[in-house]
Amino acid sequence: MFVTSEVDPAPTSGGSIRTLNLVTALARRARTHLVVVGHQPDVAELRRVTKAVSVQTYPASTGLATRVRAYARGWPLSTSRWWSPDAASFVRARQAEGALCVIDHVYLDPYRPPVGPYVLSLHNVEYDVQRELPRPQQMLRGAERQIDLQLLRRLERRAVGREDSRVVTVSRLDLESLGTDGSVVPNGTAVPDRVPPLPEGGRITYIGSMSWPPNRLAVEWWLANIAPQLPGDLPRLTVVGRGGAAAFRDEPRLDVLDEVPSVSEVLAQSSIVAIPLQHGGGTRLKVLEAMAFGRPVVSTRKGVEGLPVEDGLHALLADEPTEFAAAVTRAWTDRALALQLSAAGRRLAAGFDWTEIADDFAELVLGAEP
């Protein structure tokens, strides 16, 4: 039984791409019930794609009751928001029948079985991600966020500290940050056998859902610090991702595509994939996706954190604005360098094929006997 808050039959975000691949691999090997809380995907299509025995969906909690429940139970707000008594009842019933539970994301840990083993699959170290984000300016919101951070930290420590939990992270760095033993199942990508030639004079592209704050902040950092330093003959940054149009409405320095039918079509038009991330956790699927498609990557070190990316070989890495702008300009003007980055990135991405990674996850879960 797989409990998650993000999965779609045609995923567009990194988290939902990972979840879909892991669930599908599990369902190929064992009868798998999929429980989705706080999100309402197309159930029939999701069941067809994953081959899950059942797909159960439950709405998110909203309003004052969410806050009251959070503080009454000592939960962070995200946990209270995704809590559903009906979902918990379904999970408990399947557990009583002997189903092994996989919890996707730490904030869903209250769905864990009261006793017995379970698998805790973490996309990020959530506390690290949240504490790096800028603090709200309003005093009350800032105070609420500090309280929420402490509740999140307590939940995370308790979850990974349980002797009956088997913790799975996307990188060794995450395990070290959590201070726990566990298994690493990295993020992956689909690696096409052939990709379109690298265009000259194409787009400079950033891919990421703007509903995730680190993505929005990355674009804001680009606008404030990178765009003013680029030569005038370079194109505007193309932002691809859900919520882009709402987040950057009428911003003349961007081309915003919002959601697109196929990211591959945009990558085919891209000469560079820029990743100016300042915040976040886990590892970025957007890095592997760009490399698998043979597109040169220019990134901050935060953007490639947890991946075996070598500066100057697989990507150009820079953290200071002037250096980042210079790296983008180099990748744009030096065709030989761009092609070298393209080839090396493809070779690196080939080691992160989703098929093998998801199969490894399934074997790991099935080895955690209840």
Secondary structure: elements and pairs:
Layout: E1 2-4, H1 14-29, E2 33-37, H2 43-50, E3 54-58, H3 64-73, H4 77-81, H5 85-96, E4 102-104, E5 118-121, H6 126-132, H7 139-161, E6 165-169, H8 172-178, E7 183-184, E8 203-207, H9 213-226, E9 237-240, H10 244-247, E10 254-258, H11 263-268, E11 270-275, H12 285-292, E12 297-299, E13 316-317, H13 321-333, H14 335-349, H15 354-366
Describe this structure in words.
With 370 residues, this protein is of the alpha/beta class. It has two domains: 200 residues, 3-Layer(aba) Sandwich (Rossmann fold); 150 residues, 3-Layer(aba) Sandwich (Rossmann fold). Helix content is 44%, strand content 14%. It has 15 helices and 13 strands. The strands form two sheets. Strands 3-2-1-4-5-6-7 form a seven-stranded parallel beta sheet, sandwiched between helices. α1 links the parallel β1 and β2. α6 packs antiparallel against α7 and α12 crosses α14. It is globular and about 60 Å long.
List keywords for this structure.
single chain; 370 residues; alpha/beta; Rossmann fold; 2 domains; seven-stranded parallel β-sheet; six-stranded parallel β-sheet; 15 helices; 44% helix
The profile of the biggest β sheet is: 7 strands, parallel
Instruction: Please give the domain count.
Output: 2
What's the total helix number?
15
Kindly report how far apart the N and C termini lie.
Answer: 12 Å
Parts with pLDDT < 50 across at least 5 consecutive residues = none
CATH topology group of the largest domain? Rossmann fold
Summing up helix and strand content along with how strands pair, one would put the structural category as: alpha/beta
CATH architecture of the largest domain: 3-Layer(aba) Sandwich
Strand content: 5-15%
Number of E-state strands:
13
Write down the secondary-structure element order: EHEHEHHHEEHHEHEEHEHEHEHEEHHH
With strands numbered from the N-terminus, the spatial order across the biggest sheet is 3-2-1-4-5-6-7
